[in-house]
Amino acid sequence: MQAEISLAIILIVVLVADLVLKEPNHRALQTLSCGLLIVQMVLNIVPTSGEAFGGMYHSTPMASVVKTILTMGTLLVFMQADTWLSRKDTRFKAGEFYLLTLSTLLGMYYMVSAGNFLLFYVGLELASIPMACLVAFDKFRHHSAEAGAKFILNAMFSSGLMLYGLSLIYGTCGTMYFDDIVTIISGTPLQIMAMVFFFAGLGFKISLVPFHMWTPDTYQGAPTAVSAYLSVISKGAAAFALMSILLKVFAPMVASWEVMLGIVIVITITIANIFALLQKDLKRFMAYSSISQAGYIMLAVMGASAQGMASLVYYVVVYIVANLAVFGVINTIEQNNDGTVDRDSYNGLYKTNPKLTFVMTLALFSLAGIPPFAGFFSKFFVFASAFHGGHWLVVFLALVNTIISLFYYLLIVKAMYITPNDNPLPTFKSSALTRASLFICLLGVILLGICSSVYQVLTNTALL
Amino acid sequence: MEYTILILLLPVLSFLILGLAGMYMKHRVAGCIGTLSLAVVAVLSYLTAFNYFTAPRTAKGVYATLTPWNFEWLPFTNSLHIDMGIMLDPISVLMLVVISTVSLMVHIYSFGYMKGEKGFQRYYAFLSLFTFSMLGLVVATNIFQMYVFWELVGVSSYLLIGFYYTKPEAIAASKKAFIVTRFADLGFLIGILIYGYYMQTFTFTPGEEQLMKAGMVLPWALGLMFVGGAGKSAMFPLHIWLPDAMEGPTPVSALIHAATMVVAGVYLVARMFPLFIGFAPSVLHWVAYIGAFTAFYAASVACAQSDIKRVLAFSTISQIGFMMVALGVCTSMNPHEGGLGYMAGMFHLFTHAMFKALLFLGAGCIIHAVHSNEMETMGGLRKYMPITHITFLIACLAIAGIPPFSGFFSKDEILTACFQFSPVIGWIMAIIAGMTAFYMFRLYYCIFWGKENKELHAAHTPHESPISMTFPLMFLAAVTIVAGFIPFGHFVSANGESYNIHLNMQVAVTSIIIAVIAIALATWMYAREKQPVADMLARRFSTLHRAAYKRFYMDEIWMFVTKKIIFRCVSTPLAWFDRHVIDQFMNFMAWCTNAAGETVQPIQSGRVQSYTMWFLGGIIVLTVVLLLV
After folding, report:
1. Across residues B230-239, what is the average pLDDT?
2. In angstroms, what separates the C-alpha of B225 from chain A's closest C-alpha?
3. Domain spans of chain A?
4. pTM above the 0.90 mark?
5. ipTM value of the model?
6. Where are the alpha helices (DSSP H) in A21-59?
7. Whose CA is closest to B162, among B231, B249, B239?
8. Which segments of B114-248 does DSSP mark as H helices, in order?
9. N or C terminus of chain B: which is more exposed, having fewer CB within 10 Å?
10. Under a CB-based contact definition with an 8 Å cutoff, are residues A344 and A352 in contact?
11. Are B317 and B290 in contact (CB under 8 A)?
12. What CA–CA distance (Å, rounded) separates A436 from B290?
């Protein structure tokens, strides 16, 4: 419970600070919340396990590692939100951004360490509803309000379906505790239906096809920092929660959910890739890219083993740094050039902003899975884990898809380096915090690959 | 021994600093960073060697193999994983000492030799990179780590050969070196894959059970690995890159193409030696035959070359052939019964590294003084360059096998091992040793005695090099004088037990007599102002002389095979197939993907109602499928 309690305290401190500060002081709030998140990471760096509320809350060492990773990602997003939040029309409500983000983070904490479906659902909603506010944060700009509406409508719909599935589980098993359900559940048709409904609810958060339709609209409309947060933190937490519940609760039905996952993974990766090919708007493009990455994350679940769990978490870490690097670059370019997110306007960027281009290139290489960057190793581990589970057909189809993904990631690299352009975007200097976050991401992209023994550490934690 | 990690970290750190920030530094600063880090590495290596060899032996009478660092890098299965780490055993510690000593000397020497060159910082950065890779190669804990560093060594060699990238010959030479060794490395890689696939491990010492599984394919795996080693160590017919590699700066030739990288192949065979003896003795004997032929071939070519660095290059090839022969003639792990060659080969590797580096650095001083590689511009240089002259002479005596210089002892052990294996090989190697003495003294006389090129020397008087260049010469000469008296067998032997080197009088006397005759012959032919005998012989056997000068047309044969046969008969049809069949198929696939993208685009309509329809439809389909399965 320690991590949740300290995060709740941080939440309250930020809230009070926001109220107490007379002038809307964005800088002070930012320093405060970033500093507190670092404290939070340090406090919970040692993986622990614990139970509370009579077993409703049940945290494993792996879950606590995941929480630390999510906190780190949130910190990076806070750092990247710097320029955006110091804009005139957002400055006065910057405190709300931190508050809302921290409360979704708290919700994810509960999601990954629930021991009962009720607490899980509460965590899920805590992570969803403030998220809708975040998406609609720039409500007078672009399509932010529309994106918010689409997000909340879809979230409601999927929550409804999930609740329906949970009630079916309660109806057939008579309990909501994970530890009890696993002894009773046997895979009757009603339970299969319940599982699919539950899966769809989380599939919405992870944005798996066909539950992904909200993703491109929302990512495009939401402020870029929020899109970044949605694409890595929210997705990572949901993926981990899904895997642990499938392994813990639906273990007797492994044959059914493996078939389901196999179908969904192949469709997700393929459809997302086909859509991504034609996108011109980079935020929309990254939405499809993140859908396809979600498919790869799910491959780890197919392994259904401790190694699979470790490869999932490793993939999520690598994905967080690489994706946040890309979003960071998109964000800083957008903020410094009147909202430019068009791929064509990136033509010839190399000439004017070589460092940003370099970061972007390495991050895209990592996302595409080119060695020696971290993305190659993370893909390798999820493929290996699914392969050990005997799902070679899915692995093969996923491998074919990486070639397509390579093509569209390289399109951006080509635009930045090769495509001639007489008026590339002017040279500009991003804020210090953005640069620091990009530097951390870059280090992650390079070092996580070379020191892939991190994976070994994760496996040992998963076995605990 | 945890501090050994510094031996790897310091050079890579210095590479990063010099590579990233070098251009903002003064030459002197950059050179100092590289040299200082190497000096620390050298001290640490000596410390490691001292600690390692003074530690008590295990109950079996061997030095324990230590693994102070090891971490799992890429796991495949429980037993099959790629590790990165540091392993210390007698031969890796020996190599640490050799590499760090020669590298340090080359770093110091380059201060003088490369003074004022454009890209001085880049040069030191590459030297650091090379040293790092080479050290990583020798301390590898498993065959795959060795392969990774093996390729890194290849890359840094490529970069250094092509250091003068404005010279077309340098570019061509660097590409040639890279392509030829890379081609050979393909064999190495396949060998590793076979090894890993059948044994389920990459370690050098697989367990009994794993060996049982793979016993049948092991000769193939080891043979293919040797192909890689033959490429790096310039064994015939893959030697063609080494003479051209002399286009690089001379200190680089001393470090990479004489003392360290080119003996990587020998080191590889020594590393896999127990497996060779146990499972593939016939492959090992092939190593010996190839080594012997290479030694003979290179020695005969060396007799006819006129570029001093080329002579030294062929002499290197020939000497590596000696080491390969020494390893190849072994028949058991016991140094008293047929396992002597292992110790002899490693001993020769050690002594050769020192005196050959000395020869190259001396050649560098000479080239520095006369601004040319050709022998005809030299002659009579002994008056102008006394230190270079004396040290060069010491190295020549060592390589010719004259006691008490180090080369005599190691070569004597090799010949003894050869005679034990078969008298035929023994006599062949003894004659090649005689040829070595002959061409080395031909070189020596042509440089330092003989007819002086007065016009050239009048325009530009040759002079002795600065102290930064002569100090390494003197240091290496001192090592060359004393190294023969090191009780080498005490440290390194085939089964690890202590072995007392004792000279085989018969062999020693024979080889000394042959060497003395060869030197006398060279003196008679080349020491005077005019060389009537040599000219007469060259005219009399002009075809042979010309062939030897042209390296027996090996480059032309390779060119014929690649350009005329492979390019025309294999590549051109395949290129057509690629262009017209495969590319078109790929274009078709790309077209399909794009068309699919266009078609499905309308699904994403932006209307929430249709989104929920898809959502619900997906759930229903999934449920139905799962219920039916």
Report:
1. 89
2. 25
3. 2-463
4. no
5. 0.88
6. 26-43
7. B249
8. 120-138, 143-161, 168-199, 208-214, 218-232, 241-244
9. C
10. no
11. no
12. 58
